[in-house]
Amino acid sequence: MATPEEVLVGLLSTDATVAAAVGDRVWPVAIRLNPVFPAITYGRESGEREYALDANVTAAHTVLTVRCWATDYPAARELATAVTAALDRVTTTDVQVMSVRDGADVYLDTLNVFGCTLMVEMEQWL
Q: What are residue 96's phi and psi, to 5 degrees?
């Protein structure tokens, strides 16, 4: 079974709109050195497991933080809208359901970029 991060990157890299905007600039946790924008970063926010009475894990619920970065706010928001369309209500062989909600937007003055935050919740049966 694919990890939540593998599922996320796979879906973003195969979505035509997102891939056209960022190419392979989908990075774990942090913006790379000498970055080109737009770009996406992601990281695990939280995770919890559901257990059966026999103590076996039956499901995993994971929340990932996804940030869509661009040199101006409208472009960052447009990318966030495309990412939401690519991920919200998606089901795959590895994921029973995925949902997306907005988070707090940010600005990094050191790079002069805007980031629109999305919280991606993923439910996997194990």
A: -75, -40
Q: What is the pLDDT of residue 51?
A: 74
Stretches where the chain sits below pLDDT 70 are none
Does residue 68 contact residue 79 with C-beta atoms inside 8 Å? yes
- HSE, side-chain direction, 13 A CA sphere, residue 46: 4
Crossing angle for the helix pair 73-87 and 4-14, to the nearest 10 degrees: 110
Q: Which residue has the tokens 């790379």?
A: 32
What pLDDT score was predicted for residue 54? 81
* Domains of the chain from N-terminus onward: 4-125 (3.30.2000.10)
| H or E element at residue 9 | helix 4-14
**For residue 1, what pLDDT is reported?**
86
Q: Give the model's pLDDT for residue 53.
A: 78
* Strand 106-108 with 39-51, pairing: unpaired
Structure confidence at residue 50 (pLDDT): 78
Identify which of 17, 39, 15, 14 has the alpha carbon closest to the alpha carbon of residue 28: 39
Task: Report H helices in 33-121.
Answer: 73-87
